[in-house]
Design a protein that fits this description.
By secondary structure, the chain is of the alpha+beta class. Helix content is 45%, strand content 18%. The protein contains 16 helices and 21 strands.
Length: 544
């Protein structure tokens, strides 16, 4: 009897690729781990830097985790999820990106070993969730309190953030600048500290040494006065912020003007001049002595403003306009006809200053000084870019510490204590989740292990010593990467905000769980509509 012939059924379009089961899990885990391995060597005071060259040949030299991952143009979908962990950490805190990525990679590595023992991914995910919840509880118990008045602890937080970065040679000076800046913009809301990092502007200019960096109590605009006839310095300035052009408006539709005799041409020019003079008169009548314009200012209008003794700057960034409005109390005006004395802001001093080869406008002595500028100097563009990143990390750490009012010891001490207490917690569990909780505890130890490896030390011997110290109740026993011995991280001044650890743990655990739960990857071909893949990606990474 002949067998019935079945017509093959095609569900997916031709050219689609599908990976299922353990193959999909392993590919995803491998891709995520490769991202973690890329940044792992940058962790700690002895971490190395990466040189990143983009398609245009521009060079970035850094050991900042999120900068490395953003410049790498990662293509693999699972690897992109790990990059998102770094971006979240950067957005929330501003530091700890490498820690979060390395931790996510290690959680996935340990999960893979459990998958090999035929433990179901959802069991591992549940175990990781239990361990992460317990870890958050432990972190809050062991954390120390800090306030804006604890000068020595704040100094330790800032210097810890900059240790191992390109700015380390001048970290004490830069740490002081970061602390002063944060203290100036700090505000109290319902009894709690609130710090808006956007109120701390960091400007970089090549030239001089890193030690020449200064804190400016005001706003520094990357603009010069528009006309030489304008005053260079103005005291007790009244500032008008205008976000429309001080020029003759073009018509909305294409228009032509026919001129029959030269007199008409002169009348046309005279009319334009009259309109621009009227604009300058309106500004002067409001009492403004400084005009900051988001758009352009006509050459003739500049002349009239200079005649009135008014200082003007044009094409100022929208973000800078917002900062000026907050600092001076000025209102942003779109229509010059509406400008009045009530819309003007105040500043004790507005002046044009020269920094390096560039002329800039400094607005200082404002009534609301909750906005400051740090001017970063250095030998080359690459140096000051890395100093700026280090300063951003320090400011982020200080802001995070003061917001929550809690800090922990660094140097891997917190992670060893966490691992110890999570292992004790795992003994209270039964079932396969216990294995996942223990795997979580092992994964957390990747931080002190990496610190030891990056410093050329034996990680096994050092971890054994660390565990022995923590078993004796030394909760801040950490790695001294310079001597290779165990030290008290708190006494040594290696301090980090609690929020770095809590955020890194939660985001890395979440992404590890999400990747573990994927057992089927379907990539559509998209036919001719699919755009070509952009250049870049990670060499050696499996592609779908």
């Amino acid at each position: 009897m002949a067998q019935p012939q079945y017509q093959p059924i095609f569900i997916l379009p031709e050219g689609s690729q599908r990976t299922t089961g353990k193959s999909a899990q392993r590919t995803n885990i491998m891709a995520a781990r490769m991202v973690a391995e890329t940044v792992r060597t940058t962790l700690g005071p002895k971490g190395m830097d990466k040189m990143l060259v983009d398609s245009l040949g521009d060079v970035t030299i850094t050991n900042d985790g999120v900068t490395i991952l953003e410049e790498m143009s990662v293509e693999h979908p699972s690897a992109k999820m790990i990059v998102e962990v770094a971006k979240t950490q950067e957005h929330e805190i501003g530091d700890g990106t490498t820690t979060a990525v390395v931790l996510a990679g290690e959680l996935l590595k340990n999960a893979e070993q459990l998958l090999d023992q035929n433990i179901h991914p959802t069991v591992i995910a549940r175990g990781y969730r239990l361990a992460e919840a317990k870890a958050q509880e432990i972190l809050n118990q062991i954390a120390e309190h800090v306030s804006e008045h604890d000068a020595s602890v704040l100094m330790n937080i800032a210097t810890t953030a900059m240790t191992g970065k390109g700015a380390e040679s001048a970290k004490e000076k830069l740490a002081q600048l970061a602390i002063q800046a944060v203290q100036k913009v700090l505000e109290k809301e319902d009894g709690k500290n609130a710090i808006d990092k956007d109120n701390i502007q960091i400007e970089k200019r090549a030239g001089g040494a890193i030690d020449d960096s200064v804190l400016i109590d005001g706003i520094l605009l990357d603009k010069e006065r528009t006309h030489e006839g304008m005053p260079k310095v103005l005291k007790n300035a009244k500032i008008a912020l205008i976000d429309s052009a001080i020029e003759i408006k073009n018509t909305e539709i294409e228009a032509k003007i026919q001129i029959n005799d030269p007199g008409q041409m002169q009348a046309f020019i005279d009319m334009e001049e009259k309109m621009l003079r009227a604009k300058a008169e309106k500004i002067a009548a409001s009492g403004a002595t400084v005009v900051i314009c988001q758009k352009g200012i006509d050459d003739l209008a500049q002349h009239f403003l200079a005649k009135k003794g008014i200082y003007a700057a044009r094409r100022v960034k929208k973000s800078d306009m917002g900062k000026l409005a907050k600092a001076t109390g000025a209102r942003l005006i779109t229509n010059l006809d509406d400008l009045s004395a009530a819309d003007l802001g105040k500043a004790g001093r507005v002046e044009e200053i020269k920094i390096g080869d560039e002329q800039m406008t400094l607005v200082s002595e404002c009534p609301n000084t909750k906005s400051v500028t740090i001017l970063v100097r250095g030998g080359t563009e690459h140096v000051i870019s890395e100093v700026k990143r280090a300063l951003e990390d320090a400011i982020g750490d200080l802001a995070a510490a003061l917001r929550t009012g809690k800090v922990v010891g660094g140097a891997g001490a917190t992670e060893v204590e966490l691992a110890r207490q999570i292992r004790q917690f795992s003994d209270s569990l039964s079932g396969r989740e216990q294995l996942a909780v223990k795997a979580f505890a092992d994964a957390v130890e990747i931080i002190p292990r990496t610190l030891a490896e990056n410093s050329g030390l034996d990680p096994i011997d050092l971890l054994t010593e660390l565990k022995a110290s923590h078993d004796q109740g030394q909760k801040w026993a950490g790695v001294n990467v310079f001597t290779g011995k165990v030290m008290d991280a708190w006494k040594a001044g290696v301090v980090e905000p609690l929020q770095i650890k809590t955020q890194a743990l939660s985001s890395s655990t979440e992404v590890a769980e999400m990747i573990l739960r994927i057992d089927d990857v379907i990539q559509s071909s998209g036919g001719d509509k699919t755009p070509a893949a952009p250049p870049g990606g990670m060499g050696g990474m499996p592609e779908y």
